[in-house]
Each structure stands twice: as C-alpha cells, then as structure tokens.
Amino acid sequence: MAERTRRFAAFALTATVVLATVACDGGDTTRSNEADRSPTTVPEAGWVSSFLAPGVSAAGTRDLFEVEATRAQYWRLFALDRFDGRVWTSSGLEGSQDRRTLTTPATLPQVPGSIDPAASETLDQTFRILSDFDSAHAVPMAQNALEIGGSIGDITWDPAGGQAFVEGGLEAGMEYTVRSRLVAPTSEELDRVEYRAPAAYGRWTALPADLDPRFAAIAGRWTTDATSAYRKVLAIQQHFHDGSFVYSTDVEPADDAGTLVDFLTDTKTGFCQQYAASMVILVRSLGLPARVAVGYRAGIPQEDGSYVVRASDAHSWVEVLFPGYGWLPFEPEAGAALPNAEPGTYLSPLGSMMV
Length: 355
Known about the structure:
Elements: H1 2-14, E1 17-19, H2 47-51, E2 63-68, E3 75-80, E4 82-83, E5 88-90, E6 100-103, E7 106-107, E8 120-129, E9 145-150, E10 154-158, E11 163-166, E12 175-183, H3 187-191, H4 214-222, H5 229-239, E13 246-247, H6 257-267, E14 269-270, H7 272-285, E15 290-296, E16 300-301, E17 307-310, E18 314-322, E19 326-330
Parallel strand pairs: 13-14
Antiparallel strand pairs: 1-5, 2-8, 2-17, 3-15, 4-5, 6-10, 7-9, 8-12, 9-12, 10-11, 15-18, 16-17, 18-19
C-alpha cells in the first residue's frame, strides 16, 4: 500500500492537464497510448484536446457511466487554473498544499469557511462505470463533494481544486457513491459578497503580464452598469447569451489569447472551449477569482430516473469563487444552461435577460 501511495503521489504532483482544444461534442476518452501510460506519467499536452474534441464519432457515442441522482448536474472532473497566453492548463495537485491521500469510503476535507451549510442542500449520487476510461485519473462527481464511498481504492483529494484522482483510472464494473453539497444562494445574497485585493487569491486571479489589453476593455464595457461583483459576473455570462454569439464546432480548436480576442470581437462563433476560457479571462480581468471546470454534461435521462453519460457529453464551463459560498458554476456557452439555472436562481435571477 505504501508503494502504491508513493507512486500515485508522484503522478498527482506532476500531472498537468491541458485545455488545448475544447469542444462540447466531446470525442472518445480512450487514447491509443492509455494502456501504456503509468500513473506517474504526465498526461500529454493533447489529452484534453482529444477528450473534448469537436465532432461525435462512433467512439464518442460510447456509454461511459450511469448516475443515479434525484437531480441532474454537471459531473465535474477537474479545474484548469493557469493561463500563459497560449493555453489553459491545470496545476493539478501541485497547486494544493492540503492534498490528502484517502482510502474509500472517506469524508473529504474542505477548505475552511468556504461553504455555508445553511445555504445549501445535499445530493447523493451513485456512479456505475460502464466502460473503461481514463479521464486523467479524475473521478466524476457533482461539485462540492463531501463524501465518497465504494471500493475504488485510494484517492488523492485536493480540497482547493475540489477534485479527486484515482490511480489507474476507472474500470467497467466499478461503482462508487458521492454526497455533494448544492450551493444555491440568492442573487441578493451574492450582491452582498465582498472581495479582498486580487493578489490575495493567488493563482485564481493570475493572468499573463503581457495579456492583450482588449480583454480588460471588453470586461469593463460589458459590466459598465453592474452594481456588484456578482452582477458583473452575471453580465458577462448573459452577454454570451444575448443572441450575438453562436455555438458551432466548425471552428479551429484553440484557446490562445489571439484566438479568444477574435472570438470576442469578430467571429463570435465557437464551442465550450472558447466560451469558458474567454469568460474566465474576462472575470479575472476584473480582479475576481475564476477557473475553467472540465467534466461532463448531465447525460441522457433514463426511465428509472438515472442518467447515462457518453463520451460525447464531455464539456467545460466556468466557476467563480464567492467568499462564504465557495465556487459557483456559470455557463457562458450560447444556447446552453446549467441544470440548476431555473428562473429565480442566482444563475437566472427574475427580471434578467437570460435566454
């Protein structure tokens, strides 16, 4: 067990996941070289490119896992926190000083004071793996996981990233449970949230020093009438839904600064890679902590109330940190909406222009 823990820790500390080419029609999550990749190997730069690549092939329709849950969610894998002007990547567990190696079943340590339990409910999920898949060793789960059960072996848990990694990936026949906290504050509650200086949030607000100044100009222009930090974030999300942006996978997959500026100012056509990466840059340009989340859409509802998730459900979206409430999801992709975006929620407050 000690040797296994040592080898997995080496993987976790060096793993880098890249959002080089993200789309929302995801491709196959099994690469030809996965069988030869050891747990200590850094995932190749193109891993997420092919994980979320545009177009649905026969492999893309492969059933990956089934989820029993009373509410649909995005099934989150990991977060991307670093942007160097060329590509979004994840520092993985090397960015977390509080990472823990745990044996399931386990209670998952949380960042102190990050979530107010009074403003949330819990959601129990049961995952059944239908096909072998790697997903960079990340474990799918609804956001804000509190507990994980089952017999999937040791996991490495990162409280700051809200992500769990398992050695060797997940195999067909595995089953595990997750209890997550669903945080849904009102728009009025988020209006009262106060932030510290951007530098206090470290990597979550960092941007390249030579970033094109048009990002900050766009962020300022889109949020001119916003009266709080929350309203600024909401204004950016809603701007992507105002009808001027179009969803399409018929674009060149890229998330470098030049491509994203063109997306925001000229083409206004793209898939989830461009939407999520652009929104996080705009939010960070305002000095607010934000990151790109990578995982899967809710999947296909079944008659028994469960959801079947396919490789083609691969997706990316946005998370913004609200002190006292934790990381809250936002969905900038044109024509898309988070499962919890009912009218009256913080994602779609009454009287908003959300479509």
